[in-house]
Amino acid sequence: MKESEINIECADRFLLAGKIYEPEVYKAAVLIAPATGIKKRFYNSFATFLAQNGYGVLCFENRGIGSSKQGKSVNNGEPSLITWGKLDLTAAFQQLKESFPNTEYHIIGHSAGGQLTGLMDDVSEIKSLFNYASSSGSLSNMTYPFKFQASFFLNVFIPLNNLLLGKTNSHWVGMGEPLPKQVAKEWSRWCNGKGYVAVDFNQNIKDHLYNKITAPSLWVHATDDGIANLENVKDMVGVYKNSKSEIKTLVPSENGFKDIGHMKFFSSKYNKLWQHAIDWLESN
């Protein structure tokens, strides 16, 4: 297997940091779409596993995150959740097709990575979607005591950070990398509504392709995930109206784990769970 660090050029010429995992022979290609504020190295073990199972893989970092800051402010390139979908995800998918031509293309989305797919171009070329911890994140569907924490983060921590710092230092509360101002603002707004991205339909999002996504989708979540609970997963699935969607619920104790939560699915210590992704890719 060959690994290569690359730059991905978006339509506005902004460069994203990416990494290619290229097996000697590949049977399909997979784009790993990251969660909010998560660097590509977080998915390294998982991406390696996919490549070892015969899949070409591309990981990337959205603008404003990790090496995609281009050494400048997190707000360089006007990053937002909408921009991440319309420009970054579109460019990454195009790079996937260029790096692995003449094959089938799948997206594995983690949290935001699975929420933003309908903002990208070329959705007709997606063979399937496998999403982990992707949900609407709606505050109204969360349960106490986690709901208190989420409400504080969304409605106090984010606005104060944006006001005083011009960004949200989400790493202070263990939530990935520092977030661009507009990314955090949209995150807060969308999670205070229903359907996440759907909050901005016909407002800041005039055009989208969610209704054009007909690829089958699998939505995997864990019972101990306070954000992507079952109701919020169902809420997000409802935005993908024309995808044949399935929901798979993981119970930590039934899989030999104390917890799984929102992030640990992609940890190498939880690699026994990765067979779910392989099974899905093999059957689609």
- Portion of residues in beta strands equals 15-25%
Largest sheet: 8 strands, mixed
Overall SS class: alpha/beta
Mean pLDDT: 96
Low-confidence stretches: none
Helix content: 25-40%
Shape: globular
Give the spatial strand order of the biggest sheet: 1-2-4-3-5-6-9-10
How far is the N terminus from the C terminus?
A: 23 Å
Number of helices: 7
Q: In angstroms, what is the radius of gyration? A: 17 Å
Give the total of beta strands.
Answer: 10
Following the backbone from N to C, one meets helices and strands in this order, namely EEEHEHEHEHEEHEHEH
Short summary of the structure?
By secondary structure, this protein is of the alpha/beta class. It has seven helices and ten strands.
Describe this structure in words.
- The protein has helices spanning 44-52, 81-99, 112-115, 146-165, 181-191, 230-237, 275-283, and strands at 2-9, 15-22, 28-33, 55-60, 105-110, 126-132, 167-168, 179-180, 217-222, 245-250.
- Strand 9 (217-222), helix 6 and strand 10 form a beta-alpha-beta unit.
- The two termini are 23 Å apart.
- The protein contains seven helices and ten strands.
- The chain is of the alpha/beta class and 284 residues long.
